[in-house]
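Hi team, as promised in this morning's meeting, here are the two structures we talked about. I've kept the exact order from the run log so nobody has to guess. The first one is mostly here for context; it's the second one we should focus on when we meet again. Sequence first, then the predicted structure tokens.
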Amino acid sequence: MIEPVRLNEDFWLTASIAAVWAILAAVYALAPWGDMIGYAWVWGFGSVLFAALAALLVRR
């Protein structure tokens, strides 16, 4: 019998951080003022890292 995946509070915390970082990346990418695309790359990369960490936490 296959056990259902139970998501713990570590997963939810990390997934919410990834979501916030993704939103910030989108805001900086779409910002009307100049030279903010560099910040979008930083926030986007951080979002990917937190999403990967959340994926690892699901397997735990």
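And here is the second protein, the one for discussion:
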Amino acid sequence: MINNAINEYFSNSTILMNWSLTITAASFLLILSNSYYKLKGNKKIAYLFFFPAWIFFGFSIEKYNELSNDIILIKLLYKETPDYQENFNRLTLEINNLYSLQTENFFYGISVIILAITLIIIFFILDKQN
């Protein structure tokens, strides 16, 4: 049962990490290959909103790395050390905290990406009206 819970943490954490990488790459390509429409003048500031999102996604990926290391450690320590229960309790608490931080940073990144894309769409609509 505990093993299933740890595997579930790892599975969900991997999904978040993959989405973080995908969204970061997609937003980077959006900026580089935007040949159909380019923001002009001060409206280019909307692109700067991608940087905080990338930082949040980077933190999310970092928490994934820490979490996966703890999961490997907990599997290695499984009932093989005399102070297993103490280490197990500490590691499961740390895994839970790392997963919470990973999801928090992921959703902050998503929020900033949505804000940036909304600004770009608004600027696009305003430019088409002029």
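Starting points for discussion:
The chain has three helices and no strands.
Residues 108 and 128 are 30 Å apart (CA to CA).
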